[in-house]
Batch of 3 targets.
Target 1
Amino acid sequence: MAASLILEVARIGLRIAAPDPAIRLVAEPAHKPFLAHDAVGDCASVLIGPASGRTARRAPGKTLFETGSVWRLEELGENHLLTFRSPIFGKEPYLSVEFDRDYSRGQGETLDGGPILAAGELHPFVYPFDEVVFLARLSRGRGVLVHACGVSFEGRGLLFLGTSGAGKSTMARLWKERQGVTILSDDRIVIRADGGGYRIFGTPWHGEAGWEAPASAPLAGAFILDQAPRNAVVDLSPSAAVAQMMVRAFPSMWDQEGLEFAVRFLADLADRVPVRLLKFLPEPTAIDRALAALPHRGGSVGPDESAYDGTEEPR
């Protein structure tokens, strides 16, 4: 039987197997807590072996998305081809995986001696391969990946969305000083619909603070981070809330249906969950201000400042 590892994030699985039982599969430290020891119902399966040159001989497909020198997505008839490159390893891809239309099954090959396979060890969850696969699967109606710090506190999930440098890791450090808090991630959070509400999930793709947890919590409130001279919570109009969240989301830019799904998903979320602008100082009082703005257990919403219409972009 082929050796395999299953990575589970937000109740979605990615099983990686090697065709040669002599190859040892290894997970990186951040991924180990997210390894599943039992079968995952919603699970993609990918077989990765040493490069045979098949990808180099394959006729190029239609390019759907490209990040320059890092990775590319091509359309090959009914399938999709993901290729990953680095100038360190030459012009040919160090990893190529061909998926079916739904990204549920894939077969790939990787350079022996590259970042994935070396000295008989296969490291399948090397950035950005696993994140790209989960992103593609989320876009199929499962949920949305956002650039955010997420925490679980007293049975409720709080989401702090921000672009690079906005203060996500700072917010995680502030929360870490509180008792009874689980930092789900300081950089990447998955949001999924859950019954009549939403649930946020930790991911292994942490930021500079290095915090992640394979846990989740029902979403009670979301905040757009904006560093400011004083703490304040400002209401957002529904359209501004969606626009601000989309800027901090990772939708499938290559897939019109996936983009439309992300917009609908976040619009529905903004109708059901308070989404506000958090102007904050990097000190513990910022957390107190955010908590005061959460809906009370009875359902009423805490105080806010004047409404914000989205005309001035937060940092």
Note: The chain has two domains: 3-138, 144-308.
Target 2
Amino acid sequence: MMGEKMIYLLFIVGLALLVGGGEVLVHSGVKLAKKLHLSPLVIGIVLMGCGTSLPELSASLTALSATPPVPGIAFGNIIGSNISNILLILGLSALLSPVRIERAGFRRDGLFLIMSVFLLGLTMWFGYLDTIIGIFFILFILGYFVICYDKEPEPEDLHLTRRKEISVLIYSTLSILSIAAIVYGADLLVASASKLARIWGVKESVVGLTLIAFGTSLPELTVSIIAAIHKHASVAYGNIIGSNIANIFLIMGAIGLIRPTPIPPLWDSFWVMVAATIAMILCGLAGKIPRWMGALFLCVYGFYIAYLF
């Protein structure tokens, strides 16, 4: 019994590190980006989106490095995180504060989002993620970052005074420490969640799609809720788009380069992710996500979790 209590304790500690690291990351990351004259759109998509995708990356690589490897957790985490990002986190954000979307920036980001989902489905149909495909995914995410940067206006002043240099150093250090907390928290979360799954008698793929996916999405939840409360819709929505794109391109690419592996046929959840992505894109074309749509997203997410169990 003492061992089981310790597992629950490690699970809670992992969650705490993820949430705490995510909150520090959004505050220090935004301040750092402003010191470097980056726009809110770049803050939301590149810095916050990919920064908060680190738990998914760490969790998936940890699952594939286990003995024996558990690809159900690794790939279930990717798909489940994208589902929870849209239906749970974006839905809750819209319920708190209706999200207004900048259509011009969305056309670019929506295209990459569609490409990422299509290529994920194609790779799942192929059944194996190898090094060549991994390189292909990495090139896509790098291209996305370059396009995001090129589309942004030139900064007015890049000169850093001595005082600004010190501020940049402080915020950079805080950002690095928060990312380290996120990664370590994800490791604790995966290890403890896998043991809890065996205790509860739950399938590993279901654990990846639900428990671990939710746990590794907590930084996105923290970032988006804070942004929604402060009426920063571009950061909240951009965070979800950037995170979902990074979850596929960055994590699939890293897995292909580091741990080439067969992909389990998680088609039911894949099609749920496709439907959620289409709904998100339609909201982007409409330019807003009203409160009733947020409530609908949350209801659909509840039905999906019930279906899995």
Note: The chain has one domain: 2-308.
Target 3
Amino acid sequence: MIEQREQQESQEPQGERLQKVLAQAGIGSRREMEEWIAAGRVTVNGEVAMLGMRVVEGDVVRVDNKRPIRIRTEDARLPRVLLYHKQEGEIVSRDDPENRTSVFDKLPRLSGQKWIAIGRLDFNTSGLLIFTTSGDLANRLMHPRFEVEREYAVRVQGSMTEQQMRQMLKEGITLEDGPVKFEKLLDEGGEGYNHWYRIVVKEGRNRVVRRTFEALGLPVSRLMRVRFGIVNLPPRLKRGMLAELGSGEVAAILDWVGMEVKAAVAQHTDPKPSHGQTEGRSRAEKPGNKKAGAAAKGKQGNIPAPMPRGRSGAKHGARGKVKNTAY
């Protein structure tokens, strides 16, 4: 029996699949990496890679003959996850012909990896931005089929009628690129001509919130994302500040999206529970994938967030924890 087991273990393929390693390095999603490999854009140790190839630590992997990509095997550390409180007047892009301030300028530098923004915010929108080094995690949170909730605080010029509110929650409204419906819509009140609403949507189409209110004749004067999935915008994370999640929080997100967290990785997670601020409104459904068999939908509270960092990335005070928000 023991000899048979040893033979089976010796016959198991070594290393990780190349597309998985590239996704873990934040280059893109696994599906996208498979397309790049098939197109001959990836090399391993100087040879053009093939689909199904496995790599181990020490292999030299390059995409488009650029600098080497660091190999991270399954038992390596968890992916990194950053929270950033985006300010109005910043773009979520590395390249801008107008040379405007980019959110990527605020992020810590990486070696052999890159930061992926989970869900963009337009130039005039503020609030929660999540960055990760995992292409798989980014795909699970952003792809439309997973239907991850995004929650926004919206200030509009004017106010919605009861009929308009019912329409947005039931049949929805048709935009030029298809129908849109709010999952939740709360009237937060207001003064004078300005009125606040709290909304939840399960998609990330370009400017979908602004375009929806504008279709109702209600121009948006301020828009702020406050939650994305189970991740909330921590109250102590002021505009222009960063916070990096601890391994326990990252493991909770991976579990929530249905990504396996190995026992070897679990050794890096925080052993003590977090004691932070909780918001009853910040519960979120697990991402649903009707076609691809993602994690079943269910209720789960927020995960705690660490003490924020300043614009320079330096920590301010001792590490603390606050519940997350979603957009």
Note: The chain has a mean pLDDT of 77.
